[in-house]
Design a protein that fits this description.
By secondary structure, the protein is an alpha+beta fold. It is about 45% helix and about 25% strand.
């Protein structure tokens, strides 16, 4: 969700936040709008978004949006048990996701 939301412009983000309550699913769920906006900025800059046990305990997710002609056409992600995530593996996954994102967008 954050990968897609990061593609929204500021008014669209505000509209989304006004219509969608930030509900906690775990103790790590982001329920603060300012914190979420900061994460969206980072996701936009890095081309990937992270879910660090925000939706489910012990699950880490890295996702990316798919863009065609400046429109969001989809997204994909990799989820894994958090205990398997090392800094090196995270870096490998991010590189693979960005490469895959670029390949898919070129094919669209």
């Amino acid at each position: 969700g954050k990968a897609v939301l990061a593609e929204f412009d500021a008014p669209q983000v505000e509209e989304y936040l006004a219509a969608t309550p930030l509900t906690a699913y775990t103790e790590n769920t982001i329920t603060n709008q300012l914190k979420l906006k900061k994460e969206l900025e980072q996701a936009k800059a890095n081309q990937v978004a992270f879910d660090d046990e925000e939706m489910e305990q012990e699950i880490y997710c890295i996702g990316a949006s798919l863009i065609k002609d400046q429109e969001i056409v989809g997204a994909f992600s990799i989820s894994l048990p958090k205990y398997r995530l090392t800094p090196e593996y995270k870096s490998t996954l991010i590189d693979a996701i960005i490469a895959t994102k670029q390949q898919i967008e070129q094919a669209l």
